[in-house]
Amino acid sequence: MSEEKGDAGVDLHHAEQCSKVVCDASELERTIDWKQGLAIALGVPLLILPSLGYFPMWVSSAAIIVWGLSVFQGFMQNLAYGELATAFPHASGLPGFAQNVFKTKDYTGKFDKSKLIGGFSAWSYWFAWNPVLAIFAILVGGYLYNLFPILAETFTEYQLSLVAGIVIFGGLILVNYRGLEGGALAGYILAAISLLPLIVITLAPFATGDVVMSNITSQWLPADWAWDAHHILILLGLFAMAQWSACAWETAAIYGPEYRKPGSDVPKALFACGAVCFFSFVLVQAAVIGVLGVEGTIAQPISPMIPVAQAAFGSAGAIVAIVMLIAAMVLIIQTAYLGSARAMHSMATEGNLPKVFGKLNSSGTPIVAMVIIGLFNLLLISMGTPTAILAASAIGYTCANGISLFAYVKAKLNPEMAALDRPFKAPTGWKNIALLFGLFNIPLCLVGVVYLNSLEVGWTSTWVGFIVLALYLPLWFYSRNEAYKEKETISAVSLVSSISSGKKK
């Protein structure tokens, strides 16, 4: 729920007029600590898996540097997000921050243009996380198809992906039905199953000597690389796609309304996850290139971890790697599922989406949003093209980060917002850093990812990305009409009640 008044029918101004029973139906419960938030966000390091063979195709061994710089970018951005999380403790991460900052206080009309900006940022963030479900369900189906020949004789790869999606999405709805504590428990279990083998398979080749440093150092950049406009745009596009993976640990802040102590829990969860991400992204890419070389890595665009495991452990390592990857994919699906559901809940409670998406069950879970997201991703699976889906999704994530960083700058410059209590503060002058990285996202990375998409998968994914983002406009106008009508109803009831009270006197 928002702390500021002026958002007709959906904010605290409305909450103060509604009954406690109604309010409790849309307010998230504070039930987790930073360790549980970290457990849920630990799926983020696994986002590197789909890109391990893709980045070296463009920048050879320099992919290792790109990942390291991208995690560094995450630290710069997430310092701002951590401060926003404690300044707006009831806001759900990036979607909530932008919506709180970009709205006009005490606005009484239907269509607040500033509010539209915050809502669009939240919608972009939702579109960034939401397709992760379909992308990894498709990959799970693909691994099952190649791992078990008997399944390949019975089902097509698409059918296996669809079944995997139904089972995983349905299972996660059931696991999280009773609130985030169940999700965090599942996160602990899946993290142990997936992250530990990932670490072992990554470090083992260094110990056994299978990592050959010359495989890395002999080709830092492709032979035809030049620092011209073409290659710089490619690099910016890679940073946009790397950010989709390596900066995504800001998801630990999205559970701000559900931490028991947001002032201390948010920064702890953020930076613990960031440290894990830095070492995992750099070391995993280094291990793959060190074992396979640049050309060998490019030859394994989907599953380069399998030959790495074979090099360290023999043929049995391939089976372990695939089982680990499937468990890892379930973990990142859960991270994306919870994050995108809470983004929809945040938008609905702020009046930026139809209020049906803000409904919670008795345990405080946005179950309606989870069901709709699951159905939407089952539809996305039918596209069967995870690369195109990811490319479109990266456009949304770039927009969300750029607008959110601009929101931080505005929150620091606005006297009323600057006076809000901030249990955690970024270093002095951080608004300048936030502005710099905001401009890096919009327009630089946005232009870069559109250019890279045009080279790799054509214009289809770019058009899909922009069309999905544009769909927000009709949804927003509907939502604002809905909120305004609700306000008028409340005003009419209050007027009748006042007249009745006067007559009785």
From TrEMBL:
<keyword id="KW-1133">Transmembrane helix</keyword>
<feature type="transmembrane region" description="Helical">
    <location>
        <begin position="123"/>
        <end position="146"/>
    </location>
</feature>
<feature type="transmembrane region" description="Helical">
    <location>
        <begin position="184"/>
        <end position="209"/>
    </location>
</feature>
<keyword id="KW-0472">Membrane</keyword>
<keyword id="KW-1003">Cell membrane</keyword>
<feature type="transmembrane region" description="Helical">
    <location>
        <begin position="158"/>
        <end position="177"/>
    </location>
</feature>
<feature type="transmembrane region" description="Helical">
    <location>
        <begin position="312"/>
        <end position="339"/>
    </location>
</feature>
<dbReference type="InterPro" id="IPR050367">
    <property type="entry name" value="APC_superfamily"/>
</dbReference>
<feature type="transmembrane region" description="Helical">
    <location>
        <begin position="387"/>
        <end position="409"/>
    </location>
</feature>
<dbReference type="InterPro" id="IPR002293">
    <property type="entry name" value="AA/rel_permease1"/>
</dbReference>
<dbReference type="GO" id="GO:0022857">
    <property type="term" value="F:transmembrane transporter activity"/>
</dbReference>
<feature type="transmembrane region" description="Helical">
    <location>
        <begin position="360"/>
        <end position="381"/>
    </location>
</feature>
<protein>
    <submittedName>
        <fullName>Amino acid permease-associated region</fullName>
    </submittedName>
</protein>
<feature type="transmembrane region" description="Helical">
    <location>
        <begin position="269"/>
        <end position="292"/>
    </location>
</feature>
<feature type="transmembrane region" description="Helical">
    <location>
        <begin position="430"/>
        <end position="452"/>
    </location>
</feature>
<dbReference type="Pfam" id="PF13520">
    <property type="entry name" value="AA_permease_2"/>
</dbReference>
<dbReference type="GO" id="GO:0005886">
    <property type="term" value="C:plasma membrane"/>
</dbReference>
<feature type="transmembrane region" description="Helical">
    <location>
        <begin position="229"/>
        <end position="249"/>
    </location>
</feature>
<feature type="transmembrane region" description="Helical">
    <location>
        <begin position="458"/>
        <end position="478"/>
    </location>
</feature>
<keyword id="KW-0812">Transmembrane</keyword>
